[in-house]
User: Fold Protein HflK from Aeromonas hydrophila subsp. hydrophila.
Amino acid sequence: MAWNEPGNNGKDRDPWGNNGKNQGPPDLDEMLRKVSRRFGGLLGGGKSGGGDVGKFGLSIALMVAVVVWVVSGFYTIREAERGVVLRFGEYSHNVDPGLRWKPTFIDRVIPVDVESVRSLPASGFMLTQDENVVRVEMDVQYRVVDPEQYLFSVTNADESLSQATDSALRYVVGHTRMDDVLTTGREKVRQETWQVIDSIIEPYHMGLQIVDVNFLPARPPEEVKDAFDDAISAQEDEQRFIREAEAYAREVEPKARGQVKRLEQEAEAYKSQIVLKAKGEVARFNELLPQYQAAPELTRDRIYLETMEELYQQANKVVVDMPAGNNSMIYLPLDKLSGKANAVQPARPAGAPVVEQTPPSNEGANSTPTPLRSGDRFSSGRN
Assistant:
């Protein structure tokens, strides 16, 4: 049964103390006096000192509130952060790392990380200059350099950078051939995309700095992936063959230079040898000239003999002693004899005299060998 329901046997439980006679709003002054009396009783005061005790309790409450307000204003900015202070919602100043204090409900501090490098991925299917579709992926690394511009220059600096990256990437890929995007032109695409991103975000003063741009491997659509893989393999083979050819050239060129140098040195040595030999011949002729003028015949014979001696030293000789009155013809295999003699006879030092061996004669030990002279011929013994 409700507290003010009729027929409650006269036990009206009105919390406002009106006993059902007056249902108007409660008297706030009376309520405050009742609360003050109760607090005064708790603090030990009487009825006469209730007002003073109430003021004392209110002072304590205010002091506690002030202490709580002061304590709540302490905050800490980490080493990698900078604090942006807003006073009544408007930018005031920046604060450095450390323990700081702010007036609560007046200032607001937003910490911003200015040292960490953030990563922003970007990807999608894009149309190249030669009207082919490729899937391109890129990762942009950046960091905050100006906390105030990062928070207030644009609505969302990270989202704005993402849109600028997507726009720059589509622009660069749209002006590049597909083969360059997939193979040799990747570094060029990376550099141009970086430059376009910087040119886009510069007018907005977003407080961001691009640290690096990573261009991940681009892929053709799955329907033509096998054909493009074959094309890429062919280009890799081309580069490999070029490197092998360059390595072979680096190996052969030093050898060729060495051979050229050796031939030059041999030519110089041969030249010096011929010149010195010619000078020696001239000197020898100058020495023989007075002797020839004194005794021409004797000098001519001596020169002839010396020349024949040199010639015989360089040729194989066979001396045959034909018995007198023998009309039979002797066949000599000179080629075999000379070959056997060359094989058996040891090497003769340069300048050593020639020792001629003559086969034994049928006439006995008194027979003497006949030397072979210039112009002599072998004969059968017939007149």
